Amino acid sequence: MKILAITSQKGGVGKTTLATALAVAAEQDGKSVALFDLDPQASACFWADRRQKELGESGQTPTVRDIQTARLSHYLDRMREAGADLVILDCPPVHRDIAHDAASVADLILIPTKPEVFDIRAMQQTVQAAQQIGKPCAVVMTFCPPSGPEVDQARQIVGKQGAALVPVALHQRKAYGRAQMQGLAPQEYEPGGKAAQEVQEVYIYTRLQLFGEKKHGSKTGQSRKRA
């Protein structure tokens, strides 16, 4: 079982949007997935509630749980016993102790950031925290404008930090927000859209880092166990 933590010390950078979209992408790839909501705001749980209301029985996956950090290791053990392939940790901003505990058990940390000065500053702090505990991390650019120098400037800063950069950026697209309100991921809301393509490319990158898998659907045809 692999553990992916999605964290940033600043809010509003798209952590839950990324977490839910990657959880759905992994499910579509045939993996058994659990999404643990560590944020007191419980945005991922709200998404899951909307999902079940919209989709009924088919909206019960991926599994989403509201988890207290003190019980994190217990629930991770339960997921291993259940045969889960992937657990995604949706971490809160500001709460450094929670983020630290989540990062400590993660196989990979994704750090979403907007290409704006205050967000980049918070990203740098999060990268440093991951590096201090020796965990691999990668920065994901989010809410990127269609043009302008901000994205390239942010990429240069990431490079100077010595952190990996996910090769695809998530842009400002209505599909992200509209999908969230319906308990969907962008690839479900608008399968042929640009947001869906961006999510899929981020998932491919993440899957390669975690599982070493390059081909999509490597588990197709196998029975999928519920996490």
From TrEMBL:
Q: Which CDD domains match?
A: ParAB_family (cd02042)
**Record-annotated CobQ/CobB/MinD/ParA nucleotide binding domain positions:** 4-132
InterPro entries for this protein: CobQ/CobB/MinD/ParA_Nub-bd_dom, DNA_Partitioning_ATPase, P-loop_NTPase
Q: Which domain of life is it from?
A: Bacteria
> Which PANTHER family does the record cross-reference, listed alphabetically?
COBQ_COBB_MIND_PARA NUCLEOTIDE BINDING DOMAIN-CONTAINING PROTEIN (PTHR13696:SF96), P-LOOP CONTAINING NUCLEOSIDE TRIPHOSPHATE HYDROLASE (PTHR13696)
What is the protein's name according to its record?
Chromosome partitioning protein
